[in-house]
Amino acid sequence: MKIKKAILLLTVPLILSCKSEFLDAVSDKSKVVPESLEDMEAILNNTTVMNLYSAHQLALIGVDEYELTDARWSLVPSELEKSAYIWQGRDREEVQDWNYSYKRILYSNLVLEGLEKMEFQRSGPDADYINGAALFYRAMSLFDMVPLFCKAYDPRTAGDDLGLPLKTTVDVEDVPQRASLRGTLTFILDDLKIAADLLPDDAGITEKPNKIAVMALLSRIYLYMADYSNALFYAEQVLENRDELLDYKTIPLDAPYPFPRRGTGNPEVIFMYMTGGPSVLSVNNFDVSKKFYAYFSDNDLRKRAFFSNNADGRILFKGMYSGQNTRFTGLSTDEIYLIAAECAVRMGENDKGLLLLNRLSKKRYVEYQDLSTADFGDESEMLAHILLERKKELYQRGLHWADLKRLNLEGRFVEKLERTVHGESYELLPNSPNYVWPIPYQTVELSGLQQN
């Protein structure tokens, strides 16, 4: 019988450096499921699968944080990336954001099914950690895809809008269809709330999930859902336990990579998660958007920490919290400060919001004068300032695409994106259908999923 590739592309070899025998025969479920806690932990410790290639490549390509010259656009080898740059996104190439996410979900389900089959070792701190980590990875991998392949979250329509296939088994014959967007996010939130009770506050290294990372991810998700009360609640839970900030006055601003490799020694990094850069974002192609670069004053330490001026006059980006040439898309306290500041203001707690913003800003400017409510005409002006700081601080983190969708739906902070390639103009209007990328065509053909 021909095994369906379905949405997981399960017939692609999945390489585990430690226990590859688990995946020797994907079609035989009994041979796939690991049988010991050590085997399960080895699966989750495969950082190449679990911590790299987060689903943010399309989000990074689609935003206006950078620009390509006509010549560089023409030389991009991927037709998918070229079309995504102009918000067409209708090519038939493999989509790494989808494939790697469902690969992580497969690994997570392998572990969860293994735990379910165990009779004697399902309780205790080791089993709790493994269970919580697998739930965290499954939830994070699913949520990464929501801003890409689903409409912006609107509570009025989320019960009818299409979400994602919620794969909970390793059985390749089990091909779930797409849940609703509300159902997808409810599933993700439920996984995370269970994980929060199972994981330790600190897992020892930044590549491993922990309870604070769960709270940070919950805050990020509720922000995307415009549930500002819950986003603030979880942000404050994080900051009660982890409020350290990196003082940019203490780092080598002019170094090729000013931030420590893999977040080691950076007190802001809660969970190290990265994505490999697509071709359009390589140093040979990528130019920082002049509009974005203009947001950074000379008094802003991020201008030197994030950017360098190339000999040919181009402005390049170097400020990855990964400390290397991979985009950091993980969880960190600077993002949490900004979530808390925005949500506090939205909840009418303006003084609290500005206090949080001031704490962050003191670590980012050469000289900084605390802001107060007297410095702003109204709440919208205050929010606009916080959102601008968010744009700057989270540059190239893969989050701006989700912010555009969320804020466009709100109305008062809408943006229209524009690009010109070889004399032809392209635009992405607020709430355009092109904010929803197509499900990969091979997946639709093999599984019958409903296409966007």
Summary, kept brief:
Helices cover 43% and strands 8% of the residues. The protein has helices at 29-32, 37-44, 47-50, 57-62, 70-75, 79-85, 96-117, 125-149, 181-198, 211-224, 228-241, 290-293, 302-306, 333-346, 350-361, 379-393, 400-410, 441-447, and strands at 66-67, 162-165, 178-180, 269-271, 274-275, 287-288, 307-309, 315-317, 327-328, 331-332, 417-421, 424-428. It has a two-stranded antiparallel sheet with strand order 1-6.
Notes on the structure:
With 452 residues, the protein is mostly helical. It folds into 2 domains: 1-199 and 420-452, Alpha Horseshoe (Serine Threonine Protein Phosphatase 5, Tetratricopeptide repeat); 227-275 and 288-308 and 329-415, no CATH class. It has 18 helices and 12 strands. Strands 1-6 form a two-stranded antiparallel ribbon. A hairpin with a 2-residue loop joins strand 11 and strand 12 (424-428). Helix 2 runs antiparallel to helix 7. It is globular, with a radius of gyration of 22 Å.
Write the layout of secondary structure elements.
Layout: H1 29-32, H2 37-44, H3 47-50, H4 57-62, E1 66-67, H5 70-75, H6 79-85, H7 96-117, H8 125-149, E2 162-165, E3 178-180, H9 181-198, H10 211-224, H11 228-241, E4 269-271, E5 274-275, E6 287-288, H12 290-293, H13 302-306, E7 307-309, E8 315-317, E9 327-328, E10 331-332, H14 333-346, H15 350-361, H16 379-393, H17 400-410, E11 417-421, E12 424-428, H18 441-447
Antiparallel strand pairs: 1-6, 2-3, 4-10, 5-9, 7-8, 11-12
